[in-house]
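for the writeup, i need someone to sanity check this before i put it in the appendix. the sequnce is what the collaborator sent (i think, or maybe the updated version? ugh). structure was predicted straight from it, no edits. if anything looks off just tell me and ill rerun, i have time this weekend
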Amino acid sequence: MSLASPTSLAALPSPSTAVWHLGPIPLRAYALFIIAGIVVACWVTDRRLRQRGVAPGAVLDIALWAVPAGIIGARIYHVITSPAAYFGTGGDPIKVFFIHEGGLGIWGAVAGGAVGAWIAARQLGIPFAVVADALAPGLPLAQAIGRLGNWFNNELYGGRTDLPWGLEIHRMDGGQALRDEAGRPILEEGLYHPTFAYEALWNVGVAALVFFLDRKLRLGRGRAFALYVMGYTAGRFWIEMMRTDDATTILGVRLNVWTAAVVFVGALIYFLRVRGPREYLIPVGLPAATATPADSDVSQVDLSATRGGRVEPEVPEGYRVVSEEQFAHWRQTGEAPDEVTNPAEPDTGASTDDDGDTPTAAEGAAARPADRDS
């Protein structure tokens, strides 16, 4: 990576190279940061799922569905909201498939990823709300890491500024800065708001907020994810209005500003209306001896079994939703709670008090098998 000399001592430089070539293979900074973000999100989600009783490795099964679906959703959203480049005058429809040239929308990524995660959760027998809540702090961290790719691409910046953290912007072509006759990278005139950096820092703050409130309030039933959505869209609302790149507008306002406002309201309504304790899971179809040791805070369920001298993976048949007290008892003793004796009793969590404590009457209802969506 080479950096141009700053035009001011009080300025943030930008990389002049966003693509490196390993022989004929291009290594794009944006893609590398996206992959790094996915790895971080998977690590955080895996740990949080295991703290709720899910066996190790389940996050990889979820990612195999969620990541491709998220990429497809992100591309679809971009094409729908910016159709002129593909179907307008001088557009090239075949470039719809040229994802390597850029053009992904976070709203489509979240929606597509949610569909993929839902499919995987159904296959694994894990309530979708458990997956969403486990992902809640990891997703903004992944987004923050991904925004570093925009820095390398010299894109998604705001208007001119004279602030000490004003950003230098190179004139880029094909992942490389254009250069003058002396071989020096060419800079755009002036300094600009690093809106991608504002969003990255905001997302780190959202991750910290979700982690803290989830730990304090013991959120469940998708409320931790709703909290993430509210936090992210609140920041995206004001940051989006600072950006100067081309975008579809409605009534003179960028489409993503409208989207952020609508999604925020939807998440707020969900967060306020939905109630219930945090869900915990115990595996079905594995021996009680594989229960988590009491001195560990994450699931250590052994997914290996020896058959014919070979170690093969052993996957739970599914999971049962239990209360926190029942989960703690299972971790200490390996004894699963009895099945529900009154299946007609609804498991709505409506009787749960505000601080997340589960009434005794609701504990049995919470222990039913997780054979449907949450």
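The chain has eleven helices and ten strands. The beta strands are 19-22, 25-28, 172-173, 176-177, 249-250, 253-254, 280-284, 304-307, 310-313, 318-322.
thx in advance!!
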